[in-house]
Amino acid sequence: MVRPPPLPPAGKNLRLARWLNLVLPGAGLFYMGRRCLGAALAVPFLSCFFAALALFLVSYGRYLSLAMGGDILEGDRLERLGEIFPSAWLAGLAIAGVLIQLCSMALFEGEKKKASKGQNS
C-alpha cells in the first residue's frame, strides 16, 4: 500500500520555502521534506546552468582570442566571429532551465495546497 508523502513539519516556513524554490528549483521542496523530488529538480537545473555557463565562457575565450589576435579584417576572421557562440545550445539549455523552474513552481504550489489541507483537517 502506497502512503501519501509526509506533510511538512509545523515549524517549516512556507514563505522561505517559496523563495528557496524561486532561487533554485527544488530547494523549497527539499526544505519542506520532499528531498527526492527537490533533488530531482535541482540537479538537472544546475546541470543546465553550469553547462550553459561553461559553453559561454569557452566561447567567450575563443571570441577574445580571435578579436584580439591581430587584424580582424584578415582572411575570414570577421566571418568566423558569428559562428563562435553556440546559440542553439545556449538557447536550448536556457529553455530547459525555464521549463524545470516552471515545473518546480507548479509542484511546490501543489505541495503547499496538500500541506494546507492537512493542517485544516
Description of the molecule:
By secondary structure, the chain is an all-alpha fold. The protein is 74% helix and 0% strand. It has one domain (14-120). The model has no long low-confidence stretch (mean pLDDT 86).
Care to give the gist of this entry?
The chain has helices at 14-23, 27-32, 35-68, 77-81, 87-120.
Structural class by secondary-structure content = mainly alpha
Please estimate the helix content. over 70%
What is the strand content?
under 5%
Envelope shape = rod-shaped
Supply the number of structural domains. Answer: 1
Could you tell me the number of beta strands? Answer: 0
What is the arithmetic mean of pLDDT? 86
Main pleated-sheet profile: none
Low-confidence stretches: none
Cα(first) to Cα(last) distance is 22 Å
Number of helices: 5
Written as H for each helix and E for each strand, in order along the chain, the element string is HHHHH
Rg measurement, Å: 22 Å
